[in-house]
Amino acid sequence: MSNTRFSRTTNLRIGLLGGSFDPPHYGHVHITKQAFKAFRLDKIWWLVSPRNPLKSKEPVPIEKRVQACKEMINNSNVIVSEIEYHLKTRFTADTIRKLSNLYPNVRFVWLMGADNLVIFHNWEKWTWIMENIPVGVMARPGEQIKAGLSKTAIRYRQFRRLECKAGLLPDLKPPAWSLIGGPMQALSSSQIRSKGLWR
């Protein structure tokens, strides 16, 4: 947890990009760059989860995934963290709650791809997440229309912020979310695993 310690009096704008990163790839780097620009973030934490509760298959050991992430991203403002392992949190909502308690003066934004917004209503305590942290959704190939018509998007449509005002997202009281367009990367961890390029 040492790499995520800083003064609790800070007022940083930090994006949280969670996932199994099994393996990390340039698509993660791409949406990280987009998120910095779109939401005017100071830092982004890659939260390498011990495992994805929506997936039955175990990922490779977290130590290997953390190391691969550190080798993948070359940005001093991106912190690769296994803090969920240390916090012993299984679900995103629990991680957000604990991080908010640990860092009450940080303005966190939850980051995810449009493909995750499509299935977000399957996440544990998904309405609690939407109502307790601003959410920034990044473009993913073939998912933009489905994301905009998703159960989550429809339920929280009145709280959607225009892309041109996405830079205000970290300062807004949730629920508040924005769906960002722009260039996309079609890479996915599952594609890499299916080709036998990771394990």
In short:
With 199 residues, the chain is of the alpha/beta class. Helix content is 34%, strand content 16%. It has helices at residues 26-39, 62-72, 83-87, 92-102, 114-118, 126-130, 144-148, 151-155, 189-194, and strands at 13-19, 43-48, 78-81, 107-113, 135-138, 177-179.
Care to describe what's here?
The chain has 199 residues and is of the alpha/beta class. The protein is built from 9 helices and 6 strands, in the order E-H-E-H-E-H-H-E-H-H-E-H-H-E-H. Strand 1, helix 1 and strand 2 form a beta-alpha-beta unit.
Keywords:
199 residues, six-stranded parallel sheet, alpha/beta, 34% helix
Distance between the termini: 25 Å
User: Helix count, per DSSP?
Assistant: 9
Number of strands: 6
β-strand amount: 15-25%
In percent, how helical is the residue content?
Answer: 25-40%
What gross morphology would you assign?
Answer: globular
Low-confidence stretches: none
Provide the residue-averaged pLDDT: 87
Spatially, the strands of the biggest sheet line up as 3-2-1-4-5-6
Order of helices and strands: EHEHEHHEHHEHHEH
Structural class: alpha/beta
Query: What is the C-alpha radius of gyration, as a whole number of Å?
Result: 16 Å
Summarize the biggest pleated sheet: 6 strands, parallel
